[in-house]
Amino acid sequence: MSNESGIGMEATLAIADKVERFVRDVVVPYEQDDRRDHHDCPTDALVTELREKARAAGVLTPHILPDGRHLSQRETAIVLARTGLSPLGPLACNTAAPDEGNMYLLGKVGSDEIKAKFLQPLIEGQARSAFFMTEPAAEGGAGSDPSMMQTMCKLDGNHWVINGRKAFITGAAGAHMGIVMARAEEGACMFLVDLPDPAITIEHVPNTIDSSMPGGHAVVRIDNLRVPADQMLGQAGEGFQYAQVRLAPARLSHCMRWLGACIRANEIANDYANRRQAFGKTLIDHEGVGFMLAENMIDLKQAELMIDWCADVLDTGALGTAESSMAKVAVSEALMRVADKCVQVMGGSGVTSDTIVEQVFREIRAFRIYDGPTEVHKWSLAKKIKRDWKKAHA
């Protein structure tokens, strides 16, 4: 999986077109399926049914080829945007967070044993995963600043013992495996764990504005969790390094998927504006509405170009931290404008669940926060500007 040399644009577009047909023809009708939990998140039964259909259609985990090769980031961007044409598309095609990011990380740095035990079931769509990094803010734990990590780990014989609390852990409820970050004397560490485990207790799953990810975003307690030493990723103290390997591409993957969702929401708004009559003409012929949809066209294209640029940087082998921060800010803010205008154009219809437009609006609002709020990324970029200035004037 670590080979990201790519397969070429013609082959990539063939995969993407196949994915798009599947999402539009098979997945979209499931958007009104009532198999949702009390947080309005899709149930595992619904996800399993969709993945079986994706497997039969040959579009399950389409960004990873049968021989284990991973599409380049530029190629992945094209495919993941097509899966995002429905909020259920990434779940059906097995390109959703946090699984997609976890697959990327394990493919990059996992041992052969870890890949066989933990990665392969994810690729096959047989398991869900979680990434345990964020901690409760009230306890001074890690959030946007991972150096504040309070979860501790200590070596005991051939096992590591982990204690702490985590918050906003997407998909923890119902996950089959997890990647847990904790702090040792040597620094941050990452561990692969089987789930469920009696040492990991889900304390609370809050209701949140978004509802696309099974299991919600849980608060969990970790009490004396024992993990075999060979289930640590790399060496003690290398956890932050591996977090960066995962987080830069993961930020971009969110951009890819939500670009697809906003393209679809904009299609729905365009259709509405061209059919709806008001004050003697269709809405699209009213300048106020027409200009909003024109602005959507511009924002969607700018988001696409920003994603392509950042993907090209990552494909060079660069860590791409600054580039992914810029992409995350620019794309999430642009897509928020698109989603908001789609709701506005559709009026009362835009705030109902009759279409996916209102859900896309909610999902994009949450996207502006997770994987680093806009302000944190701007602050990080400002620090880079200062470092670069000092270096240039040394």
From TrEMBL:
Keyword Lipoprotein: no
UniProt domain Acyl-CoA oxidase/dehydrogenase middle: residue ranges: 131-206
SUPFAM superfamilies found in the cross-reference section: Acyl-CoA dehydrogenase C-terminal domain-like, Acyl-CoA dehydrogenase NM domain-like
Annotated EC: 1.3.8.7
Residues in Acyl-CoA dehydrogenase/oxidase C-terminal domain copies: 237-384
Pfam families: Acyl-CoA_dh_1, Acyl-CoA_dh_M, Acyl-CoA_dh_N
Any one GO molecular-function label of the UniProt entry: medium-chain fatty acyl-CoA dehydrogenase activity
Domain (Acyl-CoA dehydrogenase/oxidase N-terminal): residue spans on this chain: 12-125
Cofactor: FAD
Protein name: Acyl-CoA dehydrogenase
Origin species: Sphingobium boeckii
